[in-house]
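Make up an example, fold above all:
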Amino acid sequence: MKYIEKQCEEVCSWIKETVSAAKANGVVLGLSGGIDSAVVAALCKRAFPDDTLCLIMPCHSNPKDEQDARLVSDKLNLKVERVVLDPVFDTLRKSVGSLDTDSKLLLGNMKSRLRMVTLYYYAGKHNYLVAGTSNRSEYTIGYFTKYGDSGSDILPISDFVKAEVYEMAKYLKIPDEIINKAPTAGLWENQTDEDEMKMTYRELDEYLLYGKADDYIKNKVDAMNKFSEHKRNVAKRYIRK
């Protein structure tokens, strides 16, 4: 990516302008221990040094995710609060009659939406905007939870493919442990993004940036983009004729 310093500066300026236009005081985001949230946290911290709040929200999560999130927060000197969602998740499952046979995806999406609710509580409490962490690669194919991790007010890195996010991470001095770990949504044990997408980020990025891919990747990405269109838009409205 050319002019990475300039790109990061422009994103930070955009964050400032967007938050100010909403008459908000700052930004809140979820810190997952992954590269995307780390980059967004670094950019928001530059835009709002004293008004960037990061939430660590374990929900029957792998303890390593929180360790990695703490590694990022210590490196970037982030303001962090920890909200444990295990009992909320368990109570909600009981209330809706969730069964042990429910799919990992169904339960993972529930976790993501509980985190969204938590972020918006803190956003309302502090008059902050919620920053989402989706990158262009994931956003294009709908690899996110509708009204979960996509539930946000601003998306600072949604125009950058995963490879560019890695470049930004290096420039922003994100710890190597975070840059080198396998990307995962962390919604269930041993889950990785590339296994779930059935393609590599490199294949996806090459197609999005340069249109280069074999027919399998082209057809898969085009189909995923089409079928996930509803996830990128507000609910469809019926309009009277």
About this structure: The beta strands are 26-30, 52-56, 79-82, 128-130. The radius of gyration is 18 Å. Residues 38 and 61 are 18 Å apart (CA to CA).
